[in-house]
Amino acid sequence: MYKCALCSVLACKEESPERIPKNCPMKTDTLIEDCFSEYETAENKEFYIKSSEIEAAGYCEWPRIREIIEFSKSMNYKKIGIAFCLGLRSEAKIVDRLLTAAGLEAISVICKTGAIPKERIGIPDEHKVRPGTFESMCNPIAQAKLLNEQKTDFNVVVGLCVGHDSMFYKYSEAMVTTLLAKDRVLAHNPAGALYCSEGYFKDKITVNE
Ligand code: SF4
User: Fold this and answer.
1) What is the DSSP letter of 88?
2) pTM, whole model, 2 decimals?
3) In 3D, which of 80, 19, 72, 26 has the Cα closest to residue 50?
4) Which residues, other chains included, contact 84 with Cβ-Cβ below 8 Å and sequence gap of 6+?
5) Is the CB of 7 under 6 A from ligand 1?
6) Which atom of ligand 1 is nearest to the CA of 3?
7) How far apart are CA 26 and CA 40, in angstroms?
8) SS3 category, 39
9) Handedness of CA 36, 37, 38, 44 (dihedral sign)
10) pLDDT tens profile 100-116
11) Residue 32 CB less than 6 A away from ligand 1
C-alpha cells in the first residue's frame, strides 16, 4: 500500500535512489516507465511541457486564472469552455470577460442546462435542497457534451459539485482544468478546512466509522 502522504523521506524529489523507502511506489519501476512513455505521445507531450513551463513562468506570481489564460495562449487554443455552477454565475461571467479580453473565445454552459426535474433521475423530494419545490438536476454530462459539440479546445470547471465535477471530467473530450473547487462553507477555499482541521473545523470535518 502506498503512503506518499505520510512519507518524510521524499527521495522522489532528488536523485538519491539509495534513500527510497520500503513501500515506495518508485519500486514499481516498470509501471513508472510505462507512464513515462505516455508523456511521449503526440497528445500529451506538448500539453505537459507547456503546462510545466507555465508553472515556472508564473511561479508564485500568477493567480490560477492567469495561469489558465497564459497556458491556453501558449497552446494556441482558440475556444475555451466554461462549465459552471448556477451558484457561481457571477464568477463565470468574470471568467468569460477575462478570457475574451485575452483574445480567447469563451463558451459557457451552466450546470442546470436541460431543466430536468431531479425526480426524473430518481432523487426523491425529501433529498432535494428545498423539498416541495421544483429543482433542476445538475447536468454535467450535458455540460460536457454541449462543449464537445462546440469543439472547445480546453475546458475550465468553475465550481461544479463533488461528483458532478467527476462526471464532467469523464465526458469532456477536451482536457479539463479546475479553476474553482466548490466549497459553499468556505468561499470555495476547501483548503481552509484542512488548515483548521485541528481547531475550529475539527468537528465539522471529522466523520467516524
Ligand atoms: S515516492 Fe517514495 S520517496 Fe517519494 S513520497 Fe512516495 S514513498 Fe516517499
Assistant:
1) G
2) 0.95
3) 72
4) 91, 92, 95, 108, 109, 110, 111, 157, 158, 159, 160
5) yes
6) 7
7) 20
8) helix
9) positive
10) 999 999 999 999 999 99
11) no
C-alpha cell at 174: 477536451
What is the helix (H) or strand (E) element at residue 82, kind and residue range? strand 79-84
If one counts every other C-beta atom within 10 angstroms of the C-beta of residue 4, the result is 13
Among positive and negative, which fits the CA dihedral 91, 96, 100, 105? positive
For residue 177, list its beta bridge partners.
Answer: 156
Q: Are strands 79-84 and 105-110 parallel, antiparallel or unpaired?
A: parallel
Torsion of CA 106, 110, 116, 122, to 10 degrees: 120
Inter-residue contact 83 to 160 (CB < 8 Å): yes
CB 134 within 8 A of CB 123: no
E-state strands within the chain: 79-84, 105-110, 154-158, 175-180
Task: Say if ligand 1 is within 6 A of residue 193 CB.
Answer: no
141 Cβ inside 6 Å of ligand 1:
no
Do residues 72 and 153 lie in contact, with contact meaning Cβ atoms separated by under 8 Å? yes
Measured at the CA of 78, the angle between CA 139 and CA 149, to 5 degrees, comes to 35
- What SS3 class is residue 157? strand
48 within 8 A of 39, measured Cβ to Cβ: yes
- pLDDT tens per residue, range 155-193: 999 999 999 999 999 999 999 999 999 999 999 999 999
Q: Which domains does the chain have, with CATH numbers?
A: 77-209 (3.40.50)
